[in-house]
Amino acid sequence: MIRGRVWKFGNDIDTDVIIPAKYLRSVDQSVWPKHVLEGVDPQFSSKVNPGDIIVAGKNFGCGSSREQAALAIKWAGVAAVVAESFARIFFRNAINNGLPLIEAKGISGMVEEGDVIEIDLDRGVVRTPKGEVKSAPLPPFLQDILRSGGLVEYYKAHAKRDQK
To answer: Which CATH class is domain 2-137?
Structure first.
């Protein structure tokens, strides 16, 4: 179960506003969370707290295929992203990097910024102050990747288990 405060965004939040390209040149990866979502809300990184949840409209993560967008969100302490829909490459990049996502049709009308919501990834349910939004749960394989902390950790764990 994931429980956190909502930061609400609209439709078509692309990877260029999630983490602007000018920060990707830095070898210091702590720079990314300091500039996460500054293309939409320049103060977001100073307001977000560990465990908070992003709720967005349609097509979250559209644009380029940069996986740094998912990492910047995760490293900023965001516990999960709930959206009406996700760009497919962002969806997979997020899962591969251990950032929980849930696609929940109708979520935009069910929350306000600052609300506290709960996400049950196993059941595909988001509980909001206005009621529940149901979604198809993630397949078990993807849930295993998330529980491992990402694809690399998932494979490391399986490699150790297979060597025994």
So the answer is: alpha beta
